[in-house]
Amino acid sequence: MLNVSNKVLQQLAALLLERAGLKITPDGFHSLRLALSTRMPVLGVEEPERYLQRLNGPGGEEELRSLLPLVTVGHTEFFRDAKQFRALEKSVLPDLLARARREMRKVSVWSAGCATGEEPYSVAMVLAELGALSVEVDLWATDLNLAAVEAARQGRFSQRRAISISPERLSRFFRPVEDGYEALTTLREYIRFDGQNLAVPVFDKVALGSLDLILCRNVIIYFDLPTIRGLMDRFLAALRPGGLLFLGYSESLFKVYDRFEMIEVDGAFVYRRPPGDRGVRPPPLRIHPYPGTATQEPRAPEPEPFSPAVYARPPVDGAAQGVRPRTAPVDPSVRGPGAMSGTFPTVGTPPAASAPPPVGTRSNDLGRPRITVEIPTVGSLDAGRTRPTVELPAVQMPPRATSSGEPSAPAAWPKLLPPAERLAMAVRKMTQGDFPGAIAGVERLLVDEPSDLDALLTLGNLYSLTGRIPEARETFAQAILREPLCVEARVFGGVAALQAGELKEARSELGKALFLEPTLAIGHYLLAQVQERSHESDSARRSYRNAIAQLRFPQRTLAGHYPEMPDSAEAISRAARYALAALEEQPPH
Length: 589
Prior knowledge:
The chain has helices spanning 6-20, 29-43, 48-56, 60-71, 82-102, 118-129, 146-154, 167-173, 185-188, 225-238, 419-431, 435-448, 453-465, 469-482, 487-499, 503-516, 521-533, 537-549, 569-585; strands spanning 107-112, 137-143, 156-158, 174-177, 180-183, 191-195, 211-216, 239-247, 261-265, 268-272, 323-326, 363-364, 373-374, 387-390, 400-401, 407-408.
């Protein structure tokens, strides 16, 4: 491990906090050392002090962006997401192990994006407890960060990082060392660690149809749509028919990729390559059989992997939802008296829940491609675009009042629905003006699925829309604690501060978002709003121009739902050009 003084680590942590809002405590200095071990050789820098000088000098901002993803590699834990590991322990791994033994082969698992190894070691412990020998298991753990891979291979963890391992497992699989624990050789033998870039077009170390299970959790949240779709193609081809894919709870393939089935396993929703799908083949390329072995000649039909008794719900098919485009004409020349150019729509008192909008209103699908719903127009400048929406069935049962007078709808939030569908129902309530009902639904969802980042961001937006700014701040802070590089939490935090009139806070949050993602056009647009409201016309003009200029880059949609925010390239361009033209008409100050 690289020898770095505490002074340098403290200075680097202060720089990350100032530029990106990423808070690194002394407990997290381990991840800083890992990141430095990776980036310093790339630049040919041998002394940490000189690297710190590079970060503060010309070109340092770009290097700091390269460092950031490596710094957050330490933000993982053993047995993360209790529902998923309960499904792995009770159903998935026992069935996979039994199937592999029947076929006289190894059970093949890939932990993709394993960081410092907590996930694959957790899986290895479960397999060992199920009676699997290391020679029966091919558990491949990979990460882009080679320094993290090397640290994972060593299997040493501080007491803080091992806190979620039970005392029984600690005594069976680890031995105490200075300041922590080290995995025993008998546990490390289950895992093969390796470097792997998930964005490459070909996985030359993975045989077609060779894997039983892929774990790729909390990874694709940072990928754009083309990268996600290409990765899903490769994952699908690598899995055996009936093989499973586990994603993070904040990640969904709804309206992104439809060749997997979504199924429920002991309360956890996972993706499955259809058992009858035996014809998926990428273009003919040389694929080396590693890990696992390729699927052999077709055998006699076997029972479907994972019996219906295990999966209480049928596959969820997103393609079955009705999708159709809508248009709504808009006249950008119409501007209300005294309105600020490009004013971001605000919501005051929520409209009455008794007057839902007509079905023909336009849509807004802010958030990584997820379930989208009809959003009522409230005077936004981007109402003229055409885009698909998903009509969700209306909830027929009216909300029942609680003792405090607030509506509740226990029947509207069935726990068996996937989290994305439950969130869509809450968004539907928001579009109907039932903000208390929407808030209650999302809060209930987060009790059941505390790791759902989409729901957390949507809840923060609901709080800010209803004037509960302190609660919105706290919710976005939780999102950042969960995902330290969450651009959306900074963007929506800036919007909440802007609505509250806290312009300094709004500028700070949006500045951090743009540091993390400088090509995010909506971030420049919102920053221009802050600058215009601060009477900084020249700065606002520059930011509006920056918003337009960034549209030459692909623009991803953001996680979380916020009605009426311009999100498509066309909408952002139209709004920014209109605002810029209005500013140009004003006399210079």
